[in-house]
Amino acid sequence: MAAADLSQIVKAYDIRGVVPDQWDEDLAELFGAAFVQVTGATAVVVGHDMRPSSPGLSGAFAKGAALQGADVTLIGLCSTDQLYYASGKMDLPGAMFTASHNPARYNGIKLCRAGAAPIGQDTGLADIRALVEEWSRTGTAPGPAAAMGGVSKPDTLQDYAHHLLSLVDLWEMRPLKVVVDAGNGMGGLTVPAVFRHLPVTLVPMYFELDGTFPNHEANPLDPANITDLQARVRAEGADLGLAFDGDADRCFVVDERGEGVPPSAITALVARRELAKRPGGTVIHNLITSWAVPEVVRENGGTPVRTRVGHSFIKEEMARTGAIFGGEHSAHYYFRDFWNADTGMLAALHVLAARGSQPRPLSELVAEYDRYAASGEINSQVEDQAGRTEAVRAAFAGREGVTTDDLDGLTVATPDWWFNLRASNTEPLLRLNVEARDAATMAALRDEVLRLVRTR
Question: What cofactor does this protein call for (predicted)?
Answer without folding.
Answer: Mg(2+)
